[in-house]
Amino acid sequence: MSKTALPGFSLCNNATLRRAARKLGRFYDDVISLSGLKGTQYGLLYQIHVSNEPAMGTIAEAMVMDLSALGHTLKPLIRDGYVDTFADKDDRRVKRVRLTPQGQAKLEETTKLWTIAQQRFEALVGQQRAADLRAMLDEVAALEYDVPAAAPSS
pLDDT (tens digit, 9 = 90+) per residue, 84-120? Predict the structure, then answer.
């Protein structure tokens, strides 16, 4: 394929989304870093908080993560005393998670920083456009993607 036939990044939905996600993620990470957490860790604490002692599989599904990535992200939160894991009372094979009192305090501290980042982003792009972006990205995340068969080589 010649260079002139290659699509630019602006035509690739995946590349453009990843580029924007890295830039925005870096901004939120920088603001949230004052709490000692990364944006992914804050998101995980928040998801645990709103999910009422969820099962690991439930969190992984909600955050579109595989269980090993979830476990990797949880390890420092467990180590630092922000999260506890425990067996489900009805099915001991199911592992559940909950915030500890220290985790609740860290979530409240970090939410204040997240609010600063959120307000700054909305000041830059506008509240309505930010809401529209979230709605569209939620729609994209909810799509069921079928992987097409590979195109035959010519």
Answer: 999 989 888 899 999 999 999 999 999 999 999 999 9
Could you give the C-alpha distances from 135 to 21, 105, 127, 129, 141, in angstroms and in order?
Answer: 15, 29, 12, 10, 10
| Token pair recorded at residue 116 | 């600063």
- Closest among 21, 34, 27 to 113, alpha carbons compared: 34
Cα angle for residues 139, 143, 148 (degrees, 5° grid): 145
Q: Which helix (H) or strand (E) holds 23?
A: helix 13-32
Angle at 83 between CA 79 and CA 84, to 5 degrees: 95
Q: Using the predicted structure, report yes or no on whether residue 136 has a pLDDT greater than 60.
A: yes
Task: For residue 10, count CB atoms less than 10 angstroms from its CB and return exposed for 0-12, middle for 13-18, buried for 19 or more.
Answer: exposed
- The answer to whether the beta carbons of residues 116 and 101 sit under 8 Å apart is no
Count of beta carbons in the 10 Å neighbourhood of residue 99 = 19
Of 18, 44, 63, give the one whose Cα is nearest residue 110.
Answer: 44
Task: Please tell me the pTM assigned to this model.
Answer: 0.82
Place 151 in a pLDDT band, splitting at 50, 70 and 90. low
